[in-house]
């Protein structure tokens, strides 16, 4: 699971959850992969992201490095910034671990990079 | 023609070359119906992504995708295929659990019909369909579309699905490619989030209406047949009854014929 996905994922299908975001990441295995840099894609995604949640997630995985805590308004032209964002969004993957709902504490296991978001009948 | 996919195991389904070809053609058509901006890399949701066949077609078109599927066996095949998209195990009927406005579009190949079955006694298909469509609506960005290629068992299923989609706020409708060909016929539910829009044109049909004979796919032949048969004068009761019969053959939901069908109405109508 890449951090771009984590930035969109919530637990709000759970009964009683209002926001369910961001999910806390407890990772036991993290992998870094190489993905082709597409500045246009990164630029388009930035307005959709919850930047604080992204930084928080990156920090918890130890890959925050020098990613700025706030988004530069002129980011489309800042290639260095886009490359850092690209790395954090697409090149860091949680392979094994758990995602935890911030409101209920319910854990969603992650195996082979795939989060299991299936709910039990009584949770829907 | 794929009418009973559950008689095949997931692995056979994904490895059969012809199926692969069909799935990728359907994905390309769904992408076309999604009407994304040309040459812009988008963020797409693939609902019922299965073994990643549709996802790979999305990747080839330069998009990044997130896939959801209920079968871990299918997702394992996708992992072996080394797809680039991110996938998760999830049940569409439990809701799409993403933040509002996340996606530029959504596609689904051969998955939607599964929501019409009540697999457990506690399941209510209309409720699950509504949960699915309403959560999908909110996680799509305004103005984007969702395109579903699916295999409805009958017109009741089409009605059920479209009803719940409209209830959830979507507009749109069914695009039926090659409606006259049993083999090539494909159904696509095209849903809009940005308010009413014109439905894209279906493939393999020159006009909206059939002439009444099922086996004529091309317009020239159709024109000749029309002249030979001699159509009923437009808007007469006979014309209306013929048209309704044609629409029933297309699998549409048509009101029964009664003594009121085609009756003379006063000038107010």
TrEMBL record, chain A:
Species per Swiss-Prot/TrEMBL record: Limulus polyphemus
CDD domains: Trm112-like
Similarity comment text for this entry: Belongs to the TRM112 family.
A Pfam short name: Trm112p
Residues annotated as signal peptide: none
Name of the protein described by the UniProt record: Multifunctional methyltransferase subunit TRM112-like protein
UniProt-listed InterPro entries: Trm112, Trm112-like
Domain of life: Eukaryota
TrEMBL record, chain B:
Keyword Transferase annotated: yes
UniProt region (Disordered), positions on chain: 201-269
Record field: compositional bias (Basic and acidic residues): 217-226, 235-244
Keywords assigned by UniProt, alphabetized: Methyltransferase, S-adenosyl-L-methionine, Transferase
This protein's record includes keyword S-adenosyl-L-methionine: yes
Pfam families associated with the record: Methyltransf_25, WBS_methylT
Gene3D superfamilies noted in UniProt: Vaccinia Virus protein VP39
All copies of domain 18S rRNA (guanine(1575)-N(7))-methyltransferase Bud23 C-terminal, residue ranges: 191-266
Limits of the Methyltransferase domain: 44-119
CDD domains cross-referenced by the UniProt entry: AdoMet_MTases
Xref: PANTHER family: 18S RRNA (GUANINE-N(7))-METHYLTRANSFERASE-RELATED, METHYLTRANSFERASE-RELATED
Protein name: Probable 18S rRNA (Guanine-N(7))-methyltransferase isoform X2
Organism (species): Limulus polyphemus
